[in-house]
Specification:
This protein is an alpha/beta fold. 46% of the residues lie in helices and 10% in strands. It has helices spanning 3-30, 44-56, 69-83, 101-115, 135-153, 171-177, 184-190, 198-209, 216-234, 262-265, 267-274; strands at residues 34-38, 60-66, 91-95, 123-126, 163-167, 239-243, 286-287. Strands 3-2-1-4-5-6-7 form a seven-stranded parallel beta sheet, with helices on both faces. Strand 4, helix 5 and strand 5 (163-167) form a beta-alpha-beta unit. Helix 4 (101-115) runs parallel beside helix 5 (135-153), helix 6 crosses helix 9 (216-234) and helix 8 (198-209) runs antiparallel to helix 9. It is globular and about 55 Å long.
Length: 319
């Protein structure tokens, strides 16, 4: 081997070492990214949330949760095409069916492995839900599914300041508003802090009243609001809030008169996940589609005065 060959090999090795070091530095800098999970994200509002996060926040990495890995991968490619190739290293698909305990736990384990070391999740958008089906299926997916995800991913969230956004619906307050004020369920859903048994008590309400009111979707979203407040009380170092995305045209609302696009529905969840002012605001609240505080026991139209009733929670989130 000639001296020229040796010099050439040394040069190649030096270049390779430099590239490797740069890759390591790049990976290290990625540890400063805000890593988030969005459930039910292969289409509709969830997919729009993923796209909005990547478009507007260059320091965010998104796991797009999807029941179907095939549809999830298609959604990832659609988003990369829309946002631009520069985002391809900031999004990945994770198979996640919120109606399956096993699926949720497997997704959490996979993400924990990918976080590595002391990496943490910045936040979760609990978006997955269904509007039609047997009463028990709707409640199981919309309410218990939300709880499954929180329970599985809670240990992965950064503290303090990790965020949980629970996507509710204006149908929740409508449901409570329609109950008799003498109804035991009315008081429980209007003032969740009075529910005996706390978080477990919400489970009991879900099971007891699942098929008694003829509107399992609205009932399930009222439960999400109750759960949201009690979860915030139990996790004072996290930022936990619920939002309604508004009446959005998706596969779930087809033929029901909704005209607003999913991109508009993504505004409240992404705001609740990213807005810095929420770091010093009382947590456990419910916000309307205009990102203003709203009551959980009666409907508030976008643009109406901000609701200033009791919060039912003393703790505030810390930075």
């Amino acid at each position: 081997m000639t001296v020229l060959h040796l010099l050439l090999i040394s040069f190649i090795l030096a270049c390779t070492s430099t590239a490797f070091a740069e890759a390591l530095n790049s990976h290290s800098s990625n540890n400063n990214m805000k890593r988030v999970v969005v459930t039910g994200a292969n289409k509709g509002i969830g997919k729009a949330c993923c796209q909005k996060l990547l478009e507007e926040h260059s320091d965010v990495f998104v796991w797009l949760g999807s029941r179907s890995s095939e549809r999830g991968e298609e959604a990832v490619q659609d988003i990369i095409k829309s946002v631009g190739g520069d985002c391809q290293d900031r999004i990945a698909m994770v198979t996640l069916d919120v109606s399956s305990e096993e699926s949720v736990l497997q997704a959490a384990a996979k993400i924990q492995q990918q976080l590595k070391g002391d990496g943490k999740l910045y936040g979760i958008i609990n978006n997955a839900g269904i509007i039609r089906g047997p009463d028990h299926s709707v409640v199981d997916t919309n309410y218990f599914g939300t709880k499954r995800v929180v329970n599985a991913f809670l240990p992965l969230l950064q503290r303090p300041g990790g965020r949980i956004v629970n996507v509710a619906s204006a149908s929740g307050p409508y449901f409570v508003q329609g109950l008799s004020q003498r109804d035991t369920l009315y008081k429980a859903l209007k003032e969740p802090w009075t529910i005996e048994g706390g978080l477990d008590g919400v489970d009991e309400l879900a099971k007891k009243y699942c098929d008694q009111y003829g509107s399992s979707y609205a009932f399930s979203k009222a439960l999400v609001n109750a759960y949201n407040l009690l979860l915030a009380r139990s996790q004072p170092d996290l930022i936990v809030n619920a939002v309604t995305p508004g009446w959005i045209k998706t596969d779930m609302t087809v033929g029901q008169g909704a005209t607003n696009p999913p991109s508009q529905g993504a505004v409240p969840p992404v705001w609740a996940l990213m807005d810095p002012e929420l770091e010093s605001t009382t947590t456990g609240l419910y916000y309307g589609s205009d990102c203003k505080r709203s009551p959980i026991h009666e409907y508030r139209s976008p643009g109406d005065p901000v609701y200033n009733g009791p919060t039912g929670i003393e703790a505030t989130s810390s930075k």
